[in-house]
Design brief:
By secondary structure, this protein is an all-beta fold. It has no helices and 9 strands. Strands 1, 2, 4, 5, 7, 8 and 9 form a 7-stranded mixed β-sheet that branches. A hairpin with a 7-residue loop joins strand 4 (43-51) and strand 5 (59-68).
């Protein structure tokens, strides 16, 4: 699939390019696609990779989420799960992209990748998590 769509966004970054403890990633991390004209019946597939480094080379976990668009909209979102995905690393990065499969049967398209730094490391050396 050709890369034709803009990258997804992480709307709750703590600072530009960072998902950390204030985001409470154990509740999931939201990824949003905005300003795309989606039609009822379109399928949006989010591909997410969590890496143990900041440049996306050391893959620790991967997941895929499929959203079936239920009404004409310009925004679709997916929550990256904690268990088995975000809990896989203490520090590293999250890479997300998505593809759109139009209901009308026209050619699917894919997005650029978005990457953010991911850290559950707190000052003092403690690691945040659902039990901290």
């Amino acid at each position: 699939m050709p890369i034709e769509l803009d990258f997804p966004e992480f709307p709750f970054e703590e600072a530009p390019g960072l998902i950390g403890c204030r985001q409470e990633p154990w509740n999931g991390v939201l990824v949003v696609v905005d300003h795309i004209p989606f039609t009822t019946g379109d399928k949006v597939t989010f591909d997410v990779t969590v890496c143990g480094d900041t440049d996306g080379q050391s893959v620790a976990a991967q997941t895929q989420g499929v959203v079936n668009v239920t009404a004409d909209t310009t925004s679709v979102s997916y929550t990256i799960p904690w268990e088995g995905v975000l809990d896989a690393v203490t520090e590293g990065s999250i890479i997300a992209s998505y593809s759109r499969t139009p209901v009308d049967g026209s050619t699917p398209s894919t997005s650029q990748e978005a990457i953010v730094r991911y850290s559950r490391q707190q000052s003092g050396g403690t690691v945040c998590g659902p039990d901290s």
